[in-house]
Amino acid sequence: EYAQKIEDAERDLQDQITDIHTDARQAEADAMASYREDQLRAELEYQQKLRELKERFLMDLEDALHARDARAVLRLIKEYNFAKQQAMEQKALDDKLRKEKLAADLKAIKVEEQRKVEAANREFQRKMEQLAIEKQREIDEANLAAERKLEDLKLWNEREMKEIQKHFEDKQTALVDAYKLEYAAHELYQGAI
Questions:
Q1: 185 falls in which pLDDT band (50, 70, 90)?
Q2: Full-model pTM
Q3: What burial class does residue 97 get, using C-beta atoms within 10 Å of its C-beta: 0-12 exposed, 13-18 middle, 19+ buried?
Q4: How many alpha carbons fall within 13 Å on the CB side of residue 69?
């Protein structure tokens, strides 16, 4: 029974650890999927922003060319290049932040996985300690029961020995009395002759 309880506890621990690892791998996969979705969404937004910048630039450029305003053309080119550069830098920063968030999420998943494994191992150790206490209690109870049975046997043996001693003494007394009676009868008979 004790060995079965240990085997069950070990199997439960392995199942629990397997579940913890499975959950962690799923959480990592979910984090990676979320990262890829965010990355794709950000790329689409970036491309849309570049398209809008280019369309606005071309419309403004067309107006400046119709007005034959060279300064406006140069300013528009400068503004467009500046806005495009800002969009690229913002995208690079957002990409970096997304990667850092992914790394932090993956690290948090690993830390949580390790924490859960350690908690499962602590719970297993607690169960093993409890089983050891239960087993020792059973052994102590069995020893106590054996001691009581031995005491009962000793008492029974003492009573039996007293009974045998009493029976022996009664038989001896009866034999001595019978012998004395026989002897007295024999002396009486001898004295009568």
A1: confident
A2: 0.66
A3: exposed
A4: 13
Residue 115 has pLDDT above 80, yes or no: yes
Annotate the chain with DSSP letters as a single string.
Answer: -HHHHHHHHHHHHHHHHHHHHHHHHHHHHHHHHHHHHHHHHHHHHHHHHHHHHHHHHHHHHHHHHHHT-HHHHHHHHHHHHHHHHHHHHHHHHHHHHHHHHHHHHHHHHHHHHHHHHHHHHHHHHHHHHHHHHHHHHHHHHHHHHHHHHHHHHHHHHHHHHHHHHHHHHHHHHHHHHHHHHHHHHHHHHHHH-
Alpha carbons 32 and 26: distance in angstroms, whole number: 10
